[in-house]
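Our preliminary data section would be incomplete without showing what the modeling component actually yields. Below, a chain of 279 amino acids is followed by its predicted structure, encoded as tokens that our downstream tools consume directly.
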Amino acid sequence: MTLDEWNDAVRPKANASWNLQDVLGCSLDFFISLSSTVGITGGPEQANYAAGNTFQDALARHLASRGAHAVSLDLPIIRGVGYVEERPELLDHLRAMGWAFMEENEFHATLDYHCRPADGPVSVVRSQVLPRFWLPQQTAADGHELPAWRLDPLFSHLAVSSSVAMAVENGTADAKKAVNHVALLSAAKSPEEAEEVVLEALLLKLSRVLSVDVSNLEAAKPLHAYGVDSLVAVELRSWIAKELKAEVSVFDMTNASSISQVATTAAEKSKLAVKGGGN
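Predicted structure:
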């Protein structure tokens, strides 16, 4: 990302939070920051947003160490209001990625608990609060892919039970064994054949991301027809780069006239695919 993109997301969190504490001081009944679980788990191409939230977490700890009643709430998705609520298909996608959520009334109850004078100083350890966090086994039990953040050593204590892990891994292995699109793409003898392989792989990926049957997806329709926004497009871009070895921009995907066009672009840029009739 550019420096401007970094600053656009970091400054509203970092500068605004610091300015508030600088002006209001530490003698408040409470100082509550609305942070995000993204600062804990991270997110594809969201390093700027994660950094802004991490600053709020660190500021709360700093203020608590000085005796202030300061708390940073690392919020999950809030159901009932906001950007995600207006896009049901995005909520399904984020839940499939292991993102937790809480209801609006639960959020209000969390604020009600913290927005009051403390009986005593808030300990540094308790100044950063995760009101709701999804365990990997909960995601697996719902039939979704395990979240990528589970591999971070920070979450090693949230181990998936062996039975759940075995079921998920077996399911993943069976899927890969059933259709190995990487091998098919490498073996394609023409650009047209490569496009067919990429399109099939892309549709299957979309069906998992959007939690819809692949038969309900039409290759002639654009991605936005199925509610794919920039956040979902970022994940698709990362998947295409990792699995199909093709660098396709988010702009290329969101502005493509159809899913087929996205597949064509990916096939043309893939390092695995045949080029101009020869390997």
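The CA atoms of residues 191 and 272 lie 11 Å apart. The longest strand covers residues 31-36. Preliminary results of this kind motivate Aim 1 of the renewal.
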